[in-house]
Amino acid sequence: MEDILNKAKLWLSPTFDKETQDEINHLITSDSNDLADRFYKDAEFGTGGMRGIMGAGTNRINKYTLGKATQGLSNYLHVSYPNQDIKVAIAYDCRHNSKKFATLVAEILSANNIKSFVFEDLRPTPELSFTVNHLNCHAGIVLTASHNPPEYNGYKVYWTDGGQIVPPQDQAIISEVNSLDYKDIKFTKNEKLISYIGSELDEAFWNASIANGTFNVQGREDLKIVFTSLHGTSIKLIPEVLKRAGYTNVHVVEEQAEPNGDFPTVDSPNPEEPAALAMAMEYAEKMNADIVIGTDPDSDRLGIAVRDLNGDIKLLNGNQTMSVMTDFLIKQWKKQGKLNGKQFVGSTIVSTNLVNDIAASYDVETKVGLTGFKWIAKMIKDHPELDFIGGGEESFGFMVGDFVRDKDAVTSTLLACEIAADAKSNGSSFYKELLNIYVNNRFYKEHLVSLVKKGMDGAAEIKQMMIDLRNNPLAEIDGEKVTFVNDYKTSVRKNIITGEESTIDIPKSNVLVYETEKGTKVACRPSGTEPKIKFYISVQDDLDSIENTDKVEKLLDERISRIQTQLEV
User: Fold this and answer.
1) pLDDT in the model for residue 476
2) Which residue from 50, 135, 248, 385 has the fewest beta carbons nearer than 10 Å?
3) Where is the Alpha-D-phosphohexomutase alpha/beta/alpha domain (predicted)?
């Protein structure tokens, strides 16, 4: 505790402003338990940026931790682009202090002789990615904590291609940030290097979104849509892009339309949580809507609910929506005669293998990377000889084409409506299209378990859980022999039956994936953005007809339940 107290006292020096000193002094004098959590470690500028609880301290998001990150980025930009007029685009979401932090970041960049283009008001993250390319910027920054609770904020960095930073830039920037002291931050702004952007970029983004996310489908005016922005940024773009695309029957959940960093109508603004879309789904039942769409605060994730075979509104998971979207996109490319063996789709190691099966059925390659869309963006950058069709991950994100290099709930919303309108006009539905995919391939059922482990003790517990899983690997899962263990931390894929080992040719990450003889998959990893450890369970079976859906799904649900019991999660 003495070390923590000494670290805290450093924040009482003249390097820090009076407001910060007062906050720290209060914590010290009141002997607050919160002091340890604020100083037991430094808020890490990780491989995509940083995210955390706001407040004073080394393990918090504040003007100094963000300032150090921005100073390090500025130094690296000057090394990377010597003697150039460097440009950076900046966006921010609806969270508390996001606008203030965006202004701070722009000022620090300007103090380092870097020009910034700051959005005049909150905007979705995918528009920031688009803007980096559209304005030929060298980098981009968005102030957001995505779907985290209200007390969080964060900082994501994008590179010249519009994708989040990846090797070698990420480690180089991290090294630069870690080499700095708080006194090295340049706060003296140069107003001449700060410009503001707005509707002109919206117009460009809307046009690009419609160009990439619409197809020659019928029935747009007949599709009844309920949309909620969950108090976030998507209200700025999605209603208008739907209107411009020809969707006239759109009903916004007004109680959730006003951007608000407190997210007052939900416990969590995460469309992965069924409760987040409860209000919209109730509204859809009253309106007899065909589809419900909700997005997270920075509008990169979307949740979709559609009517099932009984006519009830059913929330789909991210694996299901990415499967339907992938299948539809590839069909459109085939219809247009654009498939020639030089296309690919992107996925991740914890997402459903159904996407791989769908792509293979059209002779399209699936490239699989680590969790996070920066790796899908890297696939596009690394393979200019191939056309990118689309890509997704289980955590409710999807990207249509390569005009945006991050998950994009704006264009994905448009795509989902295109699928639903097309299906409805042909006597089908979004849900029936999913079931047809199961019949044509296999019925995959996935389930995610997230265990929250907060603070210092929680971090230690998560670390120990991963150690135990490595030291005591599972030999069987629900009575099925484990055939392969994929350890992405050591980059080793081991055949448990033969003992043969091979190298995993993607970057290292703290992830374990088990595969069984019958295709069951269990993955586990600590979250990179929240105090959680996650378990991803995937089971599968044949589905010979849509009529047998309930029977097969019941069997798959029972298998998932038994696996959860076995794993004690």
Assistant:
1) 95
2) 385
3) 44-181, 218-305, 317-436
DSSP code at position 555: H
Mean pLDDT of the region 116-140 = 98
* Catalytic residue of the set 74, 146, 234, 351: 146
Q: Is 527 a catalytic residue?
A: no
On whether both 221 and 291 belong to a single domain, the answer is: yes
| 130, 10: one domain | no
Residues 6+ apart with CB under 8 A from 149: 268
pLDDT reported for residue 2: 79
Q: Tell me the residue length of the chain.
A: 569
18, 49: one domain? no
Same domain, 308 and 375: yes
Note the pLDDT tens digit of each residue in 61-94: 999 999 999 999 999 999 999 999 999 999 999 9
Same domain for 512 and 477: yes
Three-state SS sequence of 489-530: CCCEEEECCCCCEEECCCCCCCCEEEEECCCCEEEEEECCCC
Residue 409: domain span = 204-440
CATH code for the domain in which residue 162 is found = 3.40.120.10
Give CA–CA dist 375/361, Å, rounded: 24
Q: Is residue 303 classed as helix, strand or coil in its secondary structure?
A: strand
558 to 197, 387, 455, 523, 566: CA distances (angstroms): 53, 40, 34, 18, 12
How many distinct structural domains can be found in the chain? 4
Residue 248's nearest CA partner among 280, 224, 284 is 224
Q: What is the DSSP string of 59-110?
A: TSBSHHHHHHHHHHHHHHHHHHSTTS--EEEEEE-SSTTHHHHHHHHHHHHH
